[in-house]
Amino acid sequence: MRIKIINPNTTASMTARIAAAAAAVAAPGTEIIALTSRSGAVSIEGHYDEAMSIVGLVDAIREGPEADAHVIACFGDPGLLAAREIAAGPVLGIAEAAMHAASFIATGFSIVTTLERTRIISEHLVRNYGMEHHCRGVRATDIPVLELENPDSNSRALILAECERAILEDKSGAIVLGCAGMADLNQYLEEKLGVPVIDGVTVAVKFAEALVSLGLRTSKRGDLAFPLHKPYKGVLSAYAPSSPAAPRS
């Protein structure tokens, strides 16, 4: 089985961290291919960044090597439904995967993310995914995404402190980490907090393995059917859907 994990930002060192977390939980026989977007922002911290990341995401899905499933490694789940349109196999966003995983093991969870503006985006996702009755709070640490890469920052301490407040004030039984750049923190935080800490990258990999093993693929009936053939103009002319739409794994 081959799972392609796409980092929609252009920071390769973050992709390496994501890849290491994914490889640590992958089953024997699962090949993890981690790709960094070739276009877009160095970090995704807003609606505009997300919108600009989608072309790079599409490129990564369409280009080789072929994969049985894809994981979008950004907590905003940018371009998730568009990716499902062009891929035949399962496509998982790490936010959706993490929230579902948390709802399986706790009656209430809190999300701890980076900036205040991304906290608001996470709240939108909570509503979109029907998780209002499970999510007891979304908390910002006001840590820029790239500071998670800085060994001299105090980001780990700030995230731990916010998780502690979430458990105490939100009465949450689990923590969801709201950034792919936190993929290496879940074990450290679990040891400190004594509650489950969910990283969306790793749970998305395991969900992808399960779906592929069950032979489940993305439905091509209705809105997730392959895109309709039509001309595109301007800088996006090369992205016009072919006819008939070629299946993407």
Give an overview in words.
With 249 residues, this protein is of the alpha/beta class. The protein folds into 2 domains: 2-93 and 203-239, Rossmann fold (3-Layer(aba) Sandwich), CATH 3.40.50.12500; 95-199, Rossmann fold. The protein is 40% helix and 15% strand. The chain has 8 helices and 8 strands, in the order E-H-E-H-E-H-E-H-E-H-E-H-E-H-E-H. The protein has helices at 12-25, 47-62, 80-86, 94-105, 116-128, 155-170, 186-193, 200-213, and strands at 2-7, 31-36, 69-72, 91-93, 109-113, 135-140, 174-177, 197-199. It has a 4-stranded parallel beta sheet with strand order 2-1-3-4, sandwiched between helices. A 4-stranded parallel beta sheet has the order 6-5-7-8, sandwiched between helices. Helix 1 crosses helix 8 (200-213) and helix 4 (94-105) crosses helix 8. The longest helix is centred in the first third of the chain and has 16 residues, at 47-62. It is globular and about 55 Å long. The protein starts with a strand and ends in a 36-residue tail after the last helix. The model is unreliable at 245-249 (pLDDT under 50).
What structural keywords apply?
8 helices; Rossmann fold; disordered C terminus; four-stranded parallel β-sheet
